[in-house]
Specification:
There is one protein chain. This protein is an alpha/beta fold. It has 2 domains: about 120 residues; about 110 residues. Helices cover about 50% and strands about 10% of the residues. The protein has 13 helices and 8 strands. The strands form 2 sheets. Strands 2-1-3-4 form a 4-stranded parallel sheet, with helices on both faces. A 4-stranded parallel sheet has the order 6-5-7-8, sandwiched between helices. Helix 12 links the parallel strand 7 and strand 8. Helix 7 packs across helix 9 and helix 11 crosses helix 12.
Length: about 240
């Protein structure tokens, strides 16, 4: 099988090791992976801010790059949600691109969803002898309803101790430009999340979205916390 791996702008710019890890996991499962460079952003940030023309430009570029013939794997719940849930809204007045989006949507898969529900794999041979707590990113959980695939994958990692986080489903406060426009609210939400992470005494915080990793990782760093942040793909690529 061949798939396209969508880099996402945050991973491309800030977390390139996530892309390397996602590719390694897929290739380890016998998948041929391509990473087209023509589309670098799905347009979510612009769309959320009401900048529809800018979001439309990015959506057109995206839809001109990818075709439904090849599965598209996205290491981000929020970007996957933009493509599968919000593109029909964005493109409602643009019938040609709306048709392209509707044709593409069935072939779009968030990373953990693709591994567990398409490839039917929950053990990728990973080993990571550390205590881990998991943050279920909002779009992954609420828009895509993917609560179990990440946990199934983590449960099969050798040596990993999974510690449940209190109030795990609460938002970390990132929300893209929300954290920029409403820093006081975002910061208060982040502090609540940091407190629940501390309660787990875990060594590592795992999430499926680079935005959450950036928000939580920044908060942990400013607090001089020893807790590290990792994307699920990085844990699954580990062979410690």
């Amino acid at each position: 099988m061949k798939v396209n791996l969508f880099s996402t702008c945050l991973a491309e710019e800030l977390f390139p090791s996530v892309l390397k890890s996602a590719r390694a996991v897929l290739e380890g499962l016998g998948i041929e992976v391509a990473q087209p460079r023509a589309a670098f952003c799905c347009g979510q940030a612009a769309f959320n801010e009401g900048m529809r023309e800018q979001a439309l430009d990015l959506a057109r570029r995206f839809l001109d790059t990818y075709s439904p013939e090849t599965p598209l794997v996205v290491p981000s719940g929020s970007c996957t949600s933009m493509l599968k849930v919000f593109y029909p809204d964005l493109l409602a007045d643009h019938p040609d691109y709306l048709a392209k989006a509707r044709a593409l949507i069935p072939s779009v898969h968030e990373f953990s969803d693709f591994v567990v529900n398409v490839l039917k794999v929950d053990d990728v041979g990973a080993s990571f002898p550390h205590s881990v707590t998991y943050h279920p990113s909002c779009h992954l959980l609420r828009e895509l309803h993917l609560a179990q695939p990440p946990l199934r994958l983590l449960s099969k990692v050798r040596g990993l101790t999974l510690v449940e986080m209190p109030r795990a489903t609460e938002c970390c406060g990132f929300g893209g430009l929300f954290s920029v426009k409403f820093p006081e609210i975002s910061g208060a939400m982040l502090e609540d999340k940091l407190q629940t992470i501390r309660q787990t005494a875990a060594e590592v915080l795992v999430a499926n979205d680079c935005g959450c990793l950036m928000q939580i990782g920044g908060g942990l760093s400013r607090a001089n916390s020893p807790v590290k942040v990792r994307h699920l793909a990085q844990i699954l690529a580990s062979r410690e």
